Amino acid sequence: xxxxxQVLLYAQGELNAGEKQAFEKHLQTCGACxxxxxxxxxxxxxxxxxxxxxxxxxxxxxRTTRKKSVWARFKWGVTALAAAxxxxxxxxxxxxxxxxxxxxxxxxxxxxxxxxxxxxxxxELTDMEDYF
Amino acid sequence: xxxxxxxxxxxxxxxxxxxxxxxxxxxxxxxxxxxxxYILSLVKDEGAxxxxxxxxxxxxxxxxxxxxxxxxxxxxxxxTARNKVLNYFRDRKQADSLDKTDDDxxxxxxxxxxxxxxxxxxxxxxxxWQETVRQAxxxxxxxxxxxxxxxxxxxxxxxADTVGRPLGTVLADCHRAVxxxxxxxxxNAQEEKL
Lengths: 132, 194
Hints:
The structure holds two protein chains of two kinds. By secondary structure, chain A is mainly alpha-helical. Chain A has helices at 7-11, 17-27, 31-46, 54-63, 70-93, 103-131. In chain A, helix 5 runs antiparallel to helix 6. The longest helix of chain A is centred in the C-terminal third of the chain and has 29 residues, at 103-131. Chain B has nine helices and no strands. The radius of gyration of chain B is 19 Å and the shape is elongated. By secondary structure, chain B is mainly alpha-helical. The longest helix of chain B has 27 residues, at 167-193. Chain B has two domains: 3-98, Orthogonal Bundle (Rna Polymerase Sigma Factor, Chain: A); 100-193, Orthogonal Bundle (Arc Repressor Mutant, subunit A), CATH 1.10.10. Chains A and B meet through helix 1, helix 3 and helix 4 of A and helix 2, helix 3, helix 6, helix 7 and helix 9 of B.
């Protein structure tokens, strides 16, 4: 291989110390190789990779290392359901249609609702477990 | 030990195989840009490139155990990407697109430009140059274009390992690709001047 044929290997940094030294000596006197080295350096600068889209990387991590288990996702659903149930009970019990506040009635009503909600939730949980 | 300071990909793969998910994320961060650019350069479709990009790393996530730790992780990763891209084309009946090439001779780079072409190249502004390079890359035969991109991320031996060709063939392909690219850029620069 003559020196001019080594220009790509030189630009790529793949010549060993001895070859590199010999090529650089040749480079001092060869205009074509000088132009080629300059062209390749400019090309490398132009072709530097842009950043991969952040959302693609986030999605990848969400599907691999940061993937939530089915139960972890389900827990949020359960929490939301429980919160919604409590809010619903509260709104119903303090609604303006009730003419007077009666602590005994309220406690009895909440117990009934909570039992109903619990029964319904327990059934949903059983269904989900069967499904998965 | 701080994972980011580990230079060796094989060490990271070993750590990941032992259950360290941070090691996997470091490998992703290390290669995400080059791998995404490589895939995008081949499929030319951002949506498809993003899907394939994720598929490659998901393959690593699922099959890291199959990688033999011989210091060739980068080649292994890009080979996985290449196979995914080939399958993508195969699904679209374009499986041979990466292997098409032109009938260029073997003349070396420095012999290929006339004096006026060299002058036109030197007169391009940086923006013009970037756009011209982008257009010229698109005009390269797929195999040569692939070489030009792979050259950015790996050594010629690694390219040879990735594309499954002898080192000498890879070097000749790269010479042809650079020669063709330089001609295209120079032609474009001359047309701009007219």
